[in-house]
Amino acid sequence: MSLPDAFHDIAKRVNNWGRWGTDDEIGTLNLITDEVVRQAAATVRTGRRVPLTLPLQQDGVQTGVIPGRVNPLHAMVQINQEIFGPGTVACSDDVVTMGLQAATHWDALSHVSHSGRLYNGRPAHTVTPHGGAGFGGIGTVRHLVSRGVLLDVARARGTDRLDGGYAVTPEDLDAAEEMAGTRVRAGDIVLVRTGQIQACLAGDRHGYAYPSPGLSIRTPEWFHARDVAAVANDTLTFEVFPPEVANLWLPVHALHLVEMGMPQGQNWNLEELSTACGETGRYAFLLTATPEPFTGATGSPVAPVAVL
Amino acid sequence: MSLPDAFHDIAKRVNNWGRWGTDDEIGTLNLITDEVVRQAAATVRTGRRVPLTLPLQQDGVQTGVIPGRVNPLHAMVQINQEIFGPGTVACSDDVVTMGLQAATHWDALSHVSHSGRLYNGRPAHTVTPHGGAGFGGIGTVRHLVSRGVLLDVARARGTDRLDGGYAVTPEDLDAAEEMAGTRVRAGDIVLVRTGQIQACLAGDRHGYAYPSPGLSIRTPEWFHARDVAAVANDTLTFEVFPPEVANLWLPVHALHLVEMGMPQGQNWNLEELSTACGETGRYAFLLTATPEPFTGATGSPVAPVAVL
Amino acid sequence: MSLPDAFHDIAKRVNNWGRWGTDDEIGTLNLITDEVVRQAAATVRTGRRVPLTLPLQQDGVQTGVIPGRVNPLHAMVQINQEIFGPGTVACSDDVVTMGLQAATHWDALSHVSHSGRLYNGRPAHTVTPHGGAGFGGIGTVRHLVSRGVLLDVARARGTDRLDGGYAVTPEDLDAAEEMAGTRVRAGDIVLVRTGQIQACLAGDRHGYAYPSPGLSIRTPEWFHARDVAAVANDTLTFEVFPPEVANLWLPVHALHLVEMGMPQGQNWNLEELSTACGETGRYAFLLTATPEPFTGATGSPVAPVAVL
Amino acid sequence: MSLPDAFHDIAKRVNNWGRWGTDDEIGTLNLITDEVVRQAAATVRTGRRVPLTLPLQQDGVQTGVIPGRVNPLHAMVQINQEIFGPGTVACSDDVVTMGLQAATHWDALSHVSHSGRLYNGRPAHTVTPHGGAGFGGIGTVRHLVSRGVLLDVARARGTDRLDGGYAVTPEDLDAAEEMAGTRVRAGDIVLVRTGQIQACLAGDRHGYAYPSPGLSIRTPEWFHARDVAAVANDTLTFEVFPPEVANLWLPVHALHLVEMGMPQGQNWNLEELSTACGETGRYAFLLTATPEPFTGATGSPVAPVAVL
């Protein structure tokens, strides 16, 4: 069995292998130039900061369906420990065990392969148990700050939350972009709001996971045409789930991560941001979203902040 | 045994309990107003981004001396797993176990107590094994973006790395500030460079840990006078180690975290930033340093980025 | 609020504090003398070994209801790694994160306290975040081998599985003992079969957990009278759940662990053993059930084996 | 590069592939028949139990040299938590993260491969990140109880501890067997004492690890001739280290685990047992050493107990 022609046709059109050299490991993040960041900083009007992350806790997003992707387990190893003797200053210390993709996170380019290949044509087997991702690991992303643009598809479609199974189309992105009043351009980080995370916030983790609205297989070409640096949204699956084409699973993951070399973000909470942008009518902002630099990791939790 | 009068005298002068209300959990981070952030964004000149974090890996900063503060253990739980059948898109997933204070991190206000009290007078016993920090946990910090100012004490003193055991004084901060050409003001995040992290970067973890240059017990008053929001540096111990006053351990931790309610950062790599600031002569920048919002945690890894 | 008189009356009758000295940390395990073990070995007739443990895996007993008691997360850190160069002998290594009470386990005496006290009157606060159980930790149990006796209460009551919420009484133990054809004596480890684990084996983790048959508050006196060394059964809750007396939660835990100083085992799979004993008509055997000696732990996984 | 002829010659002579069927996953453990265990139980004279395990704690055997093989990190997640309200019975719970081969442990047959093969000719790639060992995992060992025989090579050679780098030969095993006064026979578990663990007990972890006495490449034929079920000793490396033949690393591992299908134990503390056997002059006993049944794991901690 192999991936269908429909997939490969799109793959050819969005492929970025070699575009930034054969050794490049960060793909579309190369589009975030100093100048892009300089302009991003210039979008700041009020200095208001809106966090886009879910809390990291045992009662988190994961339901156990994805093996090994465990919610954060937090444990104290010292509590008010008077290390240097009775009456001295006391310290508390803690540890965590968690799946790196468990909560609000970035997928590294190495998170997905197809047909035995990672981004830039590297063999999939460069991901190993011993050292993790030898190519395209999250640790190669040293910083991730750029202009962010909220494409509030739910609002543009006149609803607060898209239906489970709804596929967000390029036309939806056009409409949301028009509502946003700014054109998406090279190096931008696009945040696509579906409203799906409301299920999670209301405590319905299973309803949040499935069925889910998400990106259509047709959207990677849109992002490619605009030279977007990265895309994140407010769902667990990122792309529409169940998928649009029978037996074609995770095509958007493969197009973004493998073909384009574009990082993806999932489980981002865009609710407060949607309200803020709706109030001001401004949908572009400075976005800070640097992942934790785990060496060899295929993803990382991230605590993104929009500065309006 | 109790803390000496020398400590309590300073404590009285820098105490911020009640200043932002009796329920406040974020202390001096209240000083980062929208206006402060707006001006911070305006410091961006070129858009160059400088990361300030160490890689997160098993071969990390910790030597085993601090019980439970384990270096990150990264493990793959899926590698190119064709979840949906042979020939489909394949996924890799990973997990991590780590001490939250193991690498480049923020101390939450709840990280330290003295005389049975946390910041704002809350009882130390609000930190529990069950839920962690019930007050002053890192998860209460929803965003951490402000103006950063590098006080390059090593350079101001004409050296590349301060001696082990050297106590950075208020006068050192004055000199570095004068060299920086900008006055530290309310809401700033101050980064104090000692050069000590060079030992760590050279692979000498034990020499990095001890003896260490670091902040003198006299510096909290300096930070308090300027209404600094947070302070980070490039050492493991943060304050000078061994301490200046015999048997007075971690006084700066207690003054910052408990008395002032000011978060501290440790193990920040300021080498590349020092070079960049030295080249441009500009030592102020936009600093993004939002911690991961672990619920109830007394600290968090952070991947800070200076935008110049 | 405090525990009711009904509890304290029983507590007085079964209390063993001081019986083996004021420094004793292993309680009724002292009853397993060399002679007891010598006789236990003499019960072996065929050499058939029956394992009593559940597999340790992510898809385990825990449902997430008990915070922090996580199912085993197993991850590979090396797979066929040719450590010494290509073509050399290759190694695979793995790590695990798990709740020590997550699967088939022993509760250490320090697992439970009431009224601020552990077994032998030690203060509950000897359990600390820093070092765990300073008294009565599982690591103080250096070996656990004795005669085991299966009291197959389900069979004795003519059923394959007791109803959820059924409280196993002293009279039930008498009947099962009579069926077993051996008198329970000092130093024995008693295994009480309810059949409840069938729910777990059939994949119904929630039904397994609740409601559950289990030991009545009246049974500790039975175990005390016979000077039993330890008791284990095939349920998650060990004692009947919901409890017999409104608002009196976990009284059997408190009587066994705190008052008697008797370790308890939970989630033991007694199905194969029940069949084996039923076939031979012999319900006594050599039982090996030494916990893993985690220093300062309040419990441990165990892989018990009955040798018939 | 491939393994030398010297290796392959021995491999042919000790190979057990197919001996217990092509689907067999437990190798020489098949030699532990009911009758073997019945006779093992009959060796018990006094009922004295001697534990053979090191404590499981952060301050453990591992030095960080073997990546990912981390010492146990123990943390409390509940301490005296009154789950059901104030004044009720209180519980303490804990979690652990550890390398499965970190302390006193068994290597599963899947722990090692050579030339792309595991025991019984199975492909090495049956060990995967997703499910671990699909063949020869430790979870396939349902019980491990047999006669144990201590071959006290150190004592037989008139020393308390063999020199680092000393290779234990078949002749040494013969001499120790003669001293033991019993002939090693089919299904026995052989414990080879070198005394090396004294370094570890004295706190010298590096000296314990290297250089180490251990089994010579000539000993697998001895174990094969006697049809031994399993072998364990009191070293980190199991076989002599550095190796006897230049660039032939871990040949004994490969011969035992891959060719013979015989589990190995490492870091067993045989000091107390040596004393006990020396006092009584009896070196055979009942040995209980069942691993924890981690599904898909390539090893497991074990708490072995000798019953004399």
TrEMBL record, chains A, B, C, D:
The keyword Coiled coil does not apply. It comes from the Bacteria. Its EC number is 3.5.-.-. GO terms for molecular function: hydrolase activity. Keywords: Hydrolase. SUPFAM superfamilies: Putative cyclase. This is Cyclase family protein. It comes from Streptomyces massasporeus.
